[in-house]
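Ops channel
N.P.: pipeline sanity check, posting one input/output pair.
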């Protein structure tokens, strides 16, 4: 039985239109493509599919683009930070060992969802799901990458027999270019959502080669174009405390303006605001996290 690939891989497969994306999944228009540099590439022919592993670099740093081109010419692709590529390489060894331990495919002994083994990788609150699956066409490793703010996952399907070859090619690239992403090493906090009247505000934390940042997005329904209109600001981590203090000051002033008697002291003078006892907690409740990029 052939290990050509999955029957559901076409969900994310699409004709390649020349768009260039970074490791965060952000599209670049044609005016920005010149900013991206290709450092190395490898091509693998695994059964009826071709896979391209490209090490690329842009102003956000280095990453690896994995592109799958099926026999019909359709293209799917995912993006891996260098450290994520190293973690993926290690998982490929474990998945290959597990695959080798399996007996011949048995259609009567396949799980309902077809999954034989699964793992999950997390990078900057972007999740990658690794699923070794089996269907009527054979066994394959499906690697899916979550998209920013929902939407269908980007995914590639690697025939199980090609996992070792793919791992070795990935290892060669990592040996040449390393696996250090630099920057913040911890897990970023989760995203937050605030709804006010007909507006939605999203607070997301991300990072790039310039550091950690907060992206505050406002989404307002647009009746003219029957879609949502989004604007955003980006706040570097180094000024979050000052940003918070300015907002807190405006809140206090507006509270006094709405209820001046409540803020009068015993002598009639305005009461002084006590300093915050937990500034770090205030920052966390205001911030949040998710994968959008600057």
């Amino acid at each position: 039985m052939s290990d050509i690939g999955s029957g559901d891989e076409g969900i994310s497969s699409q004709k390649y239109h020349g768009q260039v994306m970074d490791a965060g999944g952000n599209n670049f228009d044609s005016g920005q493509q010149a900013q991206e540099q290709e450092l190395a590439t490898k091509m693998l022919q695994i059964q009826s599919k071709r896979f391209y592993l490209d090490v690329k670099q842009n102003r956000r740093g280095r990453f690896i683009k994995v592109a799958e081109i099926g026999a019909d010419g359709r293209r799917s692709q995912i993006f891996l930070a260098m450290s994520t590529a190293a973690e993926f390489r290690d998982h490929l060894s474990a998945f290959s060992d597990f695959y080798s331990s399996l007996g011949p495919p048995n259609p009567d002994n396949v799980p309902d969802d077809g999954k034989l083994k699964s793992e999950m990788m997390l990078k900057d609150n972007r999740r990658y799901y690794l699923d070794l699956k089996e269907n009527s066409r054979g066994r394959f490793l499906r690697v899916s990458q979550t998209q920013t703010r929902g939407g269908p996952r980007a995914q590639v399907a690697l025939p199980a027999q090609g996992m070792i070859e793919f791992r070795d090619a990935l290892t060669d690239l990592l040996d040449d270019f390393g696996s250090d992403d630099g920057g913040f090493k911890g897990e970023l906090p989760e995203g937050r959502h605030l709804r006010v009247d007909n507006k939605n505000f999203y607070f997301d934390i991300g990072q790039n080669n310039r550091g950690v940042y907060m992206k505050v997005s406002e989404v307002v329904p647009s009746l003219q174009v029957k879609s949502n209109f989004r604007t955003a600001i980006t706040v570097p981590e180094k000024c979050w405390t000052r940003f918070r203090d300015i907002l807190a000051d405006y809140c206090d002033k507006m509270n006094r303006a709405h209820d001046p008697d409540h803020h009068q002291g015993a002598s009639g003078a305005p009461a002084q605001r006590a300093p915050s006892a937990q500034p770090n907690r205030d920052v966390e409740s205001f911030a949040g996290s998710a994968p959008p990029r600057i």
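N.P.: looks fine end to end. The CA atoms of residues 204 and 290 lie 5 Å apart.
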